[in-house]
Amino acid sequence: MQKTDFLVIGSGIAGLTYALKVAQEFPAKKVLVLTKAKADETNTKYAQGGVAVVNDLENDSFEKHIEDTLIAGDGLCNKQVVEIVVKEGPDRVRELIEWGAQFDKEKDGDYKLGKEGGHSEFRIIHHKDITGWEMERALLDAVEKQKNIEIIKHCFVVDIITQHHLGYLVTKATPDIECYGVYVLNLQTNKIEKIVAKTTLLATGGNGQVYRTTTNPSIATGDGVAMVYRAKGRIENMEFIQFHPTALYEAGLRGQAFLITEAVRGDGGILRNKDGEAFMERYDARKDLAPRDIVARAIDSEMKRTGTEHVWLDCRHFSKEKFTEHFPNIYQKCLSIGIDIAKNMIPVAPAAHYSCGGIKVDEWGRSSIRNLYACGECSSTGLHGANRLASNSLLEAMVFAHRCYLDVKERINNNAEEKAIPDWDAKGTTEPKEMILITQSLKELQQVMSDYVGIVRNDVRLQRAMKRLDLLWEETEKLYEGSSVSPQLLELRNLITVGYLIVKGAAFRKESRGLHYNTDYPGKSDLVQNIVL
Ligand code: FAD
Ligand code: SIN
User: Fold this and answer.
1) Active site includes 292?
2) pTM over 0.85
3) pLDDT, tens digit (0-9, with 9 covering 90-100), for 60-76
């Protein structure tokens, strides 16, 4: 059993930013970061477009960024949180630059600024089209130099430990649920161990893998959200799943799809349907740069109308030099599958991309469970409302990592009574005999979510989805109770929970708002509410 004051689950931007701050504040204490894969295998690494941040006060302003965020969020953002993130953002970006991250600059030394859907100004700083890769690199380099941070890789967190594990009945009505640490599956030894911590930060990222195609890597299985839900903590607004309008379409592909950043449209890329029509002007005055929910729905509608599996992104009018300077990675990827962007249009289709809801936290990143913080994509801070403004999530993760750190340093209780945490009970369980049962259930889950709980929903589809999820849940629980745990089984279980929360939230929301579009309720309700489960 390990003991630590500061436990961090996740090695993306949220977890590493927090770990660095806490470790610098408390050089004599060890900060433990757990991650279930390689340290850099995160959603963060795949971020392309960049970080939305106001740094050109001549042409831009906090007010404009706030307004753009509120408009994209379609009436559901927490305005106070929007102001916090937008106004504190520039300081957090400066810190990241001090830790070594590099962003593209103009010849005069000013940062190059990109534009994406829903932004009224050019304000997105970036590192070519691999911004996330560069940020993750800089953070891991800084962590490497910070001797009191230990990263344990291939360490799968199974559950957070609460009074429930001490034998007490814990329900949603329990007033003061506490987190004492976590049970982890050590993927080197295949044994479950316990880690006891005074404070725990969940920074476990998104859940795109609950859908058939997603821009997210395979780690994005909503583990943090599922763990908090099991521990009877509060989860909010899970129905708001953002589908990125332009993932690269490759016939037959399942799982992670390559993203074509929205910044390509910011630089002038045009969406066209099968007949070559630039259709976005029929849907929104902002055309290709309307907020993401609108563009994704428009593409979905064009695909259904014309019976195609994708639309086209036309960049043939770009100068090759300009395109390759800003988007070298996309250029190479397209070339590798026979698409020369100077001559051919790029086939694109929407794919699950970002979870706007998640673990409900306050403005200091505190979850409803004591000593448990959540930050980054797994959390729901109130910033995104019903639809996240492009490139606001890296910014949110940095701002909230800082706020979690400020809070934890004030609140950490050095005299907390140590609890006798029991070992994990693995009695009566055997190795799973047929892995196919797990992989097939995962495929079914992804199919159900994509067919019935995608960009356009209705009540019948949601009811069907719920019935099928019930069955998958029942079968998976039997497997879970009877066999020893494996990462595949744990992820399946977590994804079914996430799917359930998305469907449940969607079924509760009797309106269409932002990313949640239900044809049975096409308008917005007067009742503006967050759905907390
Ligand atoms: P992640 O970076 O996903 O890190 C999650 C970590 O948690 C990983 O280390 C994972 O291994 C670990 N973990 C998860 N479960 C467990 C478990 N059970 N046990 C142990 N460890 C666990 N946002 C922007 O603002 N701008 C962009 O340009 C942009 N582009 C994007 C492009 C793509 C292709 C994608 C997928 C996302 C993009 N986003 C962008 C969104 C943004 O990248 C993510 O929201 C953000 O990086 C999430 O950071 P995070 O630290 O919360 O989680
Ligand atoms: C993109 O580069 O298009 C993704 C940006 C984001 O998800 O914020």
Assistant:
1) yes
2) yes
3) 999 999 999 999 999 99
